[in-house]
Amino acid sequence: MRLTLRTLLAYLDDTLEPAEARDLGLRVAKNDFARDLIERIKKVTRRRGLAAPATGPDDVSDPNTVAEYLSDTLPPDQVARVEENCLNSDAHLAEVAACHQILTLVLTEPVRVPPSAHQRMYLMVTGKASNPNRRPGRTVPVGGAMPVTQAPDADDADAPLLLGMRRYSASKSARGRALQITLVAGLAACLAVAVWMAMPQEAAAPPVASRGPTTVAAAPPAPAVKPVPPPALTLDPVKPAPVPVVGPLKPIEPPVPPPPAPKDADPAPPAVPPLAAPPRMDRRAVGKLESQTPEPLLAVKPAGGDGFVRVMADNPAVPAVDPLVCLPGYKAKVRLDSGVAVDLWAAVPEVLPAEFLETRVRFFAPGAGFDGDLALASGRVFLAARKGGPARVRVRVAGETWDVILPDADAEALVEVVPSYDPGTPVVKEGGEGPRVTATFVAVRGKVGFSVPGVKDFGTVASPKAYRGDGRGGPVAEVSGAPSAYFSRFPTLPPDPTGGRQAAALAMQGALADFAGRVGAADALKSRVFERLTEEGDITNLR
């Protein structure tokens, strides 16, 4: 269907088929000019004081021309002229739109003529044509076609109440009216009879005998009936049941109540099965520090000591339980007795752009079924299995325990812990609330298994795959996508084509190597750090 003025008028007056109206509505929604024209038609048809357009015999606004345009019988060459005239003149547009609305109402809603008006019109003429008793015929629309109805009186609001009968005032003759009255009276009589029969009726009283002398025939005497004696009942003797022999009764002792708990005693805690076995506190060597170039700076705080002591190549034993610290900028490789390799990575911004500095860890003697047991407080460690077979390492992070399974020598995992305090939280060394922890477990190479004992088993996953949690039993989320290069092993120097970052990294590595050479095995680290910082010119040259 074309989008023309006539189709827009039919769309506004709701004379189109549903499918055509839906299609035209979509076109109007996409056409700005059509929407503006619809708003203009609504305004001009409601405008008061709009003068009627001047028409002439050859004008396109002649009533006959407009009628042919609205009935779609106007030649195509004149249709364009009529529409152009309506678009240029509000008066002509309002005239055409109003005529379309009037014809729509007349053709779709036939007018009913009241009988009184019909009689008055016949009384206005004389002769044979004047017959006021003539019944009005069916209403014929202006278009000349009778509307198709499903049934007579389909538009009568009282049709459902008439039960298919004609209205009393619409009966053809007195005979029809009498028939209707008879039917109504018969229905009323049947209803009354039904009601009367439904009402409860009183029972009729028996007839009363008269007091006069009556002759009553004597009834013949009834034959004598000998009484029949009841049959004699014979009962079998009942044998008494044997009485069990019962010994002397024992007095019932009252139950002994449990002893009351002392008032000051604390209630016993509920039995909760442990999720993972606690670490063993055996103080012994669990591994050794492998020699590297440049030499790493790994410090341990022995029990009873007042500071950290460096782990040197001449005494590379790594003790259990005692805390170890890999200072910022150094990388220490620890080989456990089981063969598992643990690489401790500490960072400085010039070499490794990470969110942590030092790496703090404590090793424990592994339990049965494990090849390593460590607690990571901060920093990053890489875990790799020995060449001979698989390995199972238990990693303790804050309040959680994870098991890392390395199926073969090609598997490698990474564990990173970054502690941080919320802004405004006071830092308390002992007895205060610990920092927030972000723990990340990554399968760096091959296939690695992750599980939280008693909570969830993540199964064996292939690299690259990473999981991240808060280390306090909160939800563990999988890191979307493949881990970035941030989780991979960095080269000794970061690649930098310009040379600026490499120069800073070389200077930092030189300073770290110089500091590692000044610290001996028996020296306390804090004294060497103080001496290094108080040397002349060093404080001002720090960056």
Q: Shape from CA axes?
A: elongated
Mean pLDDT: 75
The description of the largest β-sheet is:
17 strands, mixed
The percentage of residues in β strands lies in 15-25%
Q: What are the low-pLDDT stretches, counting only 5+ consecutive residues below 50?
A: 140-146, 150-155, 209-217, 269-273, 536-543
String of helices and strands: HHHHHHHHEEEEEEEEEEEEEEEEEHH
**Number of separate strands:** 17
Radius of gyration: 55 Å
The number of helical elements comes to 10
SS-derived structural category: alpha+beta
- Gap from first CA to last CA: 79 Å
Q: Which percent bin holds the helix content?
A: 25-40%
Question: Explain this structure to me?
Answer:
It contains 10 helices and 17 strands. It is α+β, with helices and mostly antiparallel strands. The protein has a 17-stranded mixed sheet that branches. Helix 3 packs across helix 6 (90-108) and helix 5 (76-88) crosses helix 6. The radius of gyration is 55 Å and the shape is elongated.
Descriptors for this entry?
elongated, 10 helices, 17-stranded mixed beta sheet, disordered C terminus, alpha+beta, 17 strands, 543 residues
Provide a concise account of the structure shown.
The protein has ten helices and 17 strands. It is of the alpha+beta class and 543 residues long. The protein has a 17-stranded mixed β-sheet that branches.
